[in-house]
Amino acid sequence: MGDLLQARVAEWFRSVDLSPTPDEHAARLSAIGEVRQAVLRNPLGAVLVAHGHQAADAQSEILAIVRVSRPAFSDEANRCELQLMAAAAIADALDESEPSAETLAQCVSSAAFSQLPALIPELPELAVRALTTLSERSRSRATVEIARTPEALFSPPSKEEVPDPEEFTAALSSAVVEAFSSLSKHLDSVVSGLRSRLDAAEEEADLAWWAFAGGSTETRAFVTARGRKAVASPIAVALEFWRALAFGPEPPSTETLLSRVLGPISKRSFSLTEIIPAAASLDLRPAEVPEQGHPLLPILSAFCEFEAFAGKPAWLDGAARWAGDMGRAHESPALAHQLVREISIVLLTTG
Known about the structure:
By secondary structure, the chain is mainly alpha-helical. Helix content is about 65%, strand content about 0%. The two termini are about 30 Å apart. About 35% of the residues are buried.
């Protein structure tokens, strides 16, 4: 349990007029610790619960955990408390920035993009901080130990000793095998470290040159176009950026790089109503979206609805179930970043 949870949980409960006794407070802290594991197992569902949306599988698991110590706890009677406990568990996981929290952080950022209200207002900031930490950690250039003093694996007999030939041969043979095994493991470690450093350097160079050049010829054709093709620019640029990534999550400079390639388009805002039909010809799905769509995948879900209805007007009603206000305008870099985020969520949750 992190320091943030210990320091803020009582304040979070008071903010929704829940002021527990010391015993109740201790019981809630214990339950939130258990709920934390549940939200890491089911980040999509847990983030929906934390933002007041229905997610039957996540709600059932969280309810089962809470009812161990509070059998009378009810989803109907304690809905606000259930939402707050899910949010507090998410905040605790994000504050620790453990690798398993990447999907959770992406989901919270997606909820912020869709303007889903949260009982804990710090969640988006915690998500950004966790993603920054995880991104820097995955790209860190750890020191690679090339040379290492070998361990003494075999002690030759002194001049005064007369070893048994068979024992001497067996001991020497065992020492040689162990030495080669140790050397092999060390070489594997060195190669792995060097490969990681090389991949990080190549990604950094690729992204820098990509941004400096203003994207590829294909993306520049979108950015410099007029009319409908220009509207599709954030989607085209996001897909090209995502393909250049060697590590997850995306670097903290993502929106700066996207803005650089979008050029004048970065100053424009588009709604999903505009951008989905304009980008319908692009290959948008490196991974499959859940068939029924998802509120934390508004762009990909809207594209699925557009495809399902073959572009007929009814697609807007279907997409609104997942994306909310289809007419709300989003800045181009934020739209592009959201698509990168959604692709990451899909790949992280589907393996």
